[in-house]
Write a structure and sequence with these properties.
The chain is mostly helical and 243 residues long. It has one domain. Helix content is 80%, strand content 0%. It has 9 helices and no strands. Helix 1 crosses helix 8 and helix 5 runs antiparallel to helix 6. The termini are close together. The model has no long low-confidence stretch (mean pLDDT 80).
Length: 243
């Protein structure tokens, strides 16, 4: 069993290596194609909105301030890019929930060389979609109140820098929780027990979540970070639960 904190990187790299393994590809590429279509729609909508905002800005600025549009354009582009990336990842996680659950199961079968009799197809997994979405919603309920609290603390002068660091750590923690949830949910392990498991190796899971967060910001890698993280979390869970 690999238990060192830096082993999180090894698991994630292993996740990327297994993306094209036989029996896993369909669960990687089907949600990816759906997410890509959503991404194209988001790009088209954001581009149209961005051009409209710039045109409106140019029409309201006096002639001698037209040069400001050249300064605001990069700001708009960066803001739109960040919005699209986070929105894409949010939608991709909801779209990929049934696929990710099956992907985690298939990884277990690949490693253990044993076939599970349940949920052996995408269509059978879709029957379990309400429960999967309910579980995802429970994670959102865990996330939102703490995010609001950090937002309030960020408004207090003098502690902004500390709160910003806490915000990054919290996001890393919840990302690790989100992906570890797939193998644990397949084994009907409660969220409370999952958090207890994570508490025993906080640093490793913080590093794991931080690596996922970094991958989400890198073009091209961000398309594959979700299935790679699901595989990595499953491998991690399997190693930690070897008898």
């Amino acid at each position: 069993m690999i238990t060192t904190p830096l082993s999180a990187l090894s698991y994630l790299l292993a996740g990327f290596k297994l993306l094209h393994s036989k029996g896993l590809k369909r669960y990687v590429y089907m949600p990816l194609m759906i997410s890509m279509l959503i991404f194209i729609v988001l790009i088209s909508w954001a581009s149209h909105l961005l051009l409209s905002l710039v045109d409106r800005l140019n029409s309201t600025l006096p002639h001698w301030l037209q040069w400001l549009s050249w300064l605001l354009w990069p700001l708009f582009v960066i803001s739109a890019g960040v919005f699209i990336i986070y929105t894409f990842n949010l939608i991709a996680n909801w779209v990929g929930a049934p696929f990710n659950s099956l992907l985690s199961q298939k990884v277990e079968e690949l490693i253990s060389q044993q076939t599970s009799p349940s949920q052996d197809s995408i269509f059978s997994s879709l029957k379990d979609l309400p429960r999967l979405l309910k579980r995802q919603f429970a994670l959102v309920l865990y996330y939102i109140p703490r995010l609001v609290l950090l937002g309030i603390l960020f408004l207090i002068p003098g502690i902004n820098g500390i709160v910003a660091l806490l915000w990054l750590m919290f996001n890393a923690w919840t990302l690790a929780m989100q992906y570890l949830d797939y193998p644990m949910d397949n084994h009907k392990i409660s969220l409370a027990n999952m958090r207890q498991t994570m508490q025993s190796q906080k640093l490793k899971y913080l590093i794991f979540g931080s690596l996922i967060m970094l991958g989400m910001l890198i073009p091209l890698i961000n398309f594959f970070i979700m299935p790679a993280a699901v595989i990595a979390a499953t491998l991690m869970w399997l190693d930690e639960n070897k008898s």
